[in-house]
Specification:
The chain is of the alpha+beta class and 438 residues long. It has nine helices and 22 strands. The chain binds flavin-adenine dinucleotide. The site of flavin-adenine dinucleotide (FAD) has 39 residues, from helix 1, strand 14 and strand 18.
C-alpha cells in the first residue's frame, strides 16, 4: 500500500474526514473557488461509516428543515451525473423503491403529513384494506409495543390493524461508498487535494481564530477555515480542536447493526417489495439487489442503546442477540420471511445528537465549522450538505452573524428556502421521533 501523499502546506479550507459528508463539502467549497485539502486517517474515501450505510432515501422527518433537505437532495440523487458535473468511472445510482411508514399508536400523523404536503412530497394514506391489497405479503396487525424475542408476549396476537403513509419518490443508493468516491473525484477534478492515512491531531489557533491543522508525523497545513466532518469520530476531533470549539448540542458514537435476510416471495425489489419504517414493531427494512432485505433498528425502548467510547473499537460483525431481535420483528410483519440460523450483516457506528438532528454550523471559534451528528439519517442529505457548508462559510467569513440571523439556502431544484439555523449547535433539541428516523 502506498504511503500517505504529502498534503500542501497551505489551503483555503481543510476538511477533516473523507466520508460522503466531507466529500460533498470538499466539492462545493472547491468548485466555488476555494482551495480545499481533505485529510482522512483511513485508507479509502468513504471507508468510514458511509461504507456501512443502508443509504435509504426517504422524506418523513419530524422537522420542516429535515423534509426540505431530503426532498431537495433526492432530486440531486436522481440526476447524480448532473449534480457531480464531472463524470469519470462508475456512478452510484438511486434505485427507486416505495416506502411505507408504519406508525406507533398516538403518532402525530397529521403533523407528519402536513410537513410532506407543505414541502410538496407526494404521499398517500393507505388504510388496512388498501395496505393489504397493494402489499399482500404484509401482516397489517398492530403489535405495539416492540419487544425482544425472548419476551413471553413477543408472539401475542395483534391488538388491532395498521394503516400506513406511502411515499413513492424515494429509494436507496446502491453503493454508498461509491457515492462518496464520486463526490470526491468531482472535487479533485476541480483541484481539491485528498490526503488519506493522514490523521488530524489538533487545531492551530491564531488571534482567536482557526489558523490551520496539526497532523500526524509532524505535518501541518495553514488554513483559515477548518471543517470537522469526522462522522462518528466527531467528538474526538472536537476534543482535539480545543475547548473554544465546544457546542451545546453534543455528539456521541453509537453502535448499530444491519442484517441481511432473503426477501420472501412477493416482497423483493421490483417484485412487490417496499421499504418499511415500522415503529409499531421496532425495525426498518429495505429490499436490496439480489433478492435480499436489509433489516436495521429504530431504537425501540426495549433495546439497549449501545454508546461506544471509540468507533475504532467496534468490530464490523453482527451479534446473535441483535440479529434475532431485528429479524424476528421483521418476520412478524412479513410472515413469509425465513429467519436464518446464523446472523448475517454488519455492525456500524452512528454519530448521534440528543434529537437525532445533525449539526451543520459554525462554532464559537471563528473559522472552525462542523458537519456532524448525522445520527444515522444524513447519507440521503449529503448532496445538499456541501452547499449548506459553503453557504455558511461564505456568510460567516464575510462577517455575517449566523447565530443572531441564521442564513438560509435556496434549494434550486425544489424552490424551497432551507433554514440553516435548524441545524444550529445552540438549538433547543427539536421535537422528533428520538430515533434514527429523525
Ligand atoms: C449502519 C448504518 C446505516 C445507515 N443507514 C442510513 C440510511 O439508510 N439513510 C441515511 O440517510 N443515512 C444512513 N446512515 C447514516 C449515514 O450513513 C451517515 O450519516 C453518513 O454516512 C456519515 O458520513 P460522514 O462523512 O459524516 O462520516 P464517515 O463516513 O464516518 O466519514 C468520517 C471520516 O472521518 C475520518 N476521520 C475520523 N477521525 C479523523 C481524524 N482524527 N483525522 C482524519 N480523519 C478522521 C474517518 O476515517 C472517516 O473516513 C447509516 C449509518 C450507519 C452506520
Amino acid at each position: 500500500m502506498p504511503g500517505p501523499s504529502n498534503p500542501p502546506g497551505r489551503a483555503d479550507v481543510v476538511v477533516i474526514g473523507a466520508g460522503v459528508i466531507g466529500a460533498s463539502i470538499a466539492l462545493e467549497l472547491q468548485r466555488s473557488g476555494r482551495s480545499v485539502v481533505v485529510v482522512d486517517k483511513g485508507n479509502a474515501v468513504g471507508g468510514g461509516s458511509t461504507s456501512s450505510s443502508s443509504a435509504v432515501v426517504r422524506f418523513n422527518y419530524s422537522t420542516l428543515a429535515g423534509v426540505v433537505a431530503a426532498w431537495e437532495s433526492a432530486q440531486r440523487w436522481a440526476d447524480w451525473s448532473g449534480h457531480l458535473g464531472h463524470v469519470d468511472g462508475p456512478l452510484a445510482r438511486l434505485v427507486r423503491c416505495p416506502m411505507l411508514f408504519l406508525e406507533p399508536p398516538g403518532f402525530p400523523r397529521s403533523e407528519a403529513t402536513s410537513l410532506l404536503a407543505e414541502v410538496g412530497v407526494p404521499f398517500e394514506v393507505l388504510d388496512e384494506h388498501e395496505l393489504t391489497r397493494r402489499f399482500p405479503s404484509l401482516d397489517t396487525g398492530r403489535f405495539f409495543p416492540p419487544r425482544r424475542p425472548d419476551d413471553p408476549c413477543f408472539g401475542d396476537p395483534p391488538t388491532g390493524r395498521l394503516d400506513a403513509v406511502l411515499t413513492v419518490d424515494g429509494g436507496f443508493v446502491d453503493d454508498p461508498q461509491l457515492a462518496a468516491v464520486n463526490l470526491m473525484d468531482a472535487a479533485r477534478h476541480h483541484g481539491a487535494h485528498v490526503s488519506l492515512r493522514t490523521e488530524f491531531l489538533g487545531l492551530e489557533v491564531e488571534r482567536g481564530r482557526a489558523a490551520g491543522v496539526r497532523l500526524a508525523r509532524g505535518a501541518s497545513i495553514e488554513a483559515p477555515v477548518v471543517v470537522n466532518a469526522a462522522g462518528p469520530w466527531s467528538s474526538t476531533v472536537d476534543g482535539r480542536a480545543g475547548a473554544l470549539a465546544k457546542r451545546t448540542v453534543w455528539t456521541l458514537p453509537m453502535r448499530q447493526e444491519v442484517h441481511v435476510v432473503d426477501a420472501p416471495a412477493g416482497f423483493a425489489l421490483d417484485d412487490g417489495g417496499a421499504m418499511l419504517a415500522d415503529l409499531d414493531l421496532g425495525y426498518y427494512l429495505r429490499p436490496h439487489t439480489g433478492g435480499t432485505l436489509l433489516v436495521g433498528g429504530v431504537e425501540p425502548d426495549c433495546d439497549p442503546l449501545e454508546w461506544v467510547d471509540d468507533p475504532d473499537e467496534v468490530a464490523p460483525l453482527p451479534t446473535v442477540a441483535c440479529f434475532e431481535a431485528q429479524a424476528w420483528r421483521a418476520a412478524r410483519r412479513l410472515p413469509g420471511l425465513a429467519v436464518p440460523h446464523r446472523p448475517t450483516g454488519l455492525a456500524g457506528v452512528y454519530d448521534v445528537t440528543p434529537d437525532w438532528v445533525p449539526v451543520y454550523d459554525r462554532t464559537d471559534l471563528d473559522g472552525y465549522y462542523v458537519a456532524i451528528g448525522t445520527s444515522g439519517n444524513q447519507f440521503k442529505n449529503a448532496p445538499l450538505v456541501g452547499e449548506i457548508l459553503r453557504t455558511l462559510v461564505d456568510a460567516c467569513e464575510a462577517g455575517h452573524d449566523h447565530d443572531a440571523d441564521p442564513v438560509s439556502l435556496h434549494c434550486r431544484h425544489t424552490g424551497h428556502d432551507l433554514d440553516v439555523g435548524a441545524f444550529s449547535r445552540r438549538r433547543d433539541p427539536a421535537s422528533t421521533t428520538g430515533t434514527v428516523l429523525g
